[in-house]
Amino acid sequence: MYKNSDRFLTSFNRIEKMLRSFMIHKKDVSFSKTVKILRNSNALVSQYSDDLLEFAELRNAIVHNKVDMTYAIAEPHDEIVERIEWIEEELRKPKLVIPTFQKYVYCFQSNDELNKLLKVIHEKRLSKFPIYEGKVYRGLLTQKGITNWLASIDQQGEMLKSSYHLKDIFPFENNENSKFIAQDTTLYEAIEMFKEHTSRGKRLEALLITSNGEPSAKLLGIITAWDILEIS
């Protein structure tokens, strides 16, 4: 039966080989340096960089303190071995946004009446809706945009009519609040997109998933900021 140190080193060596395959240049640098380089451009490595750097220290302790080929002074705990093997599997086969977030997406046409959308909000408890004009994507309408529109009507002293069209509301919505991604995008890349927008002081409300990341393709699913908070 394999000891924990054997399992740990085997998994570590496989991870090291994978990380070096990600490197375009400087393939001969240390494991820790490789992690620090890759975490700036690789969402997966960025997610687990702290773990990977700690694994490097433990690897050194095991290798340098080994008395002989059959005995290691530092034996990792079970949870450490399970953790490194789990991360190895994530690096080898990361979760993709499809099928993780595959779902029916409620979409509307820009000339649809607001009442139609409000009914879906009430029945389905949803708050973000892709809006199209024919087959052309026009943007993401949110409850915040609707609230901004209602506030403008109140400030102007207008009376609410029995019906409005969604295109009347769009001027009050943030037109950079959504982005299309391909179905083979990793979950970690999606998380980084939300973080990147936040770092620029802009709120990304949703990622819309199609087969190739093009707005003209059929919607396969949606990832909202709330979804990211639940999995981060």
UniProtKB/TrEMBL annotation:
Domain annotation CBS: ranges: 174-232
UniProt superkingdom: Bacteria
InterPro entries per the UniProt record, alphabetical: CBS_dom, CBS_dom_sf
Keywords associated with the record: CBS domain
Transmembrane segments: none
Name under which the protein is recorded: CBS domain-containing protein
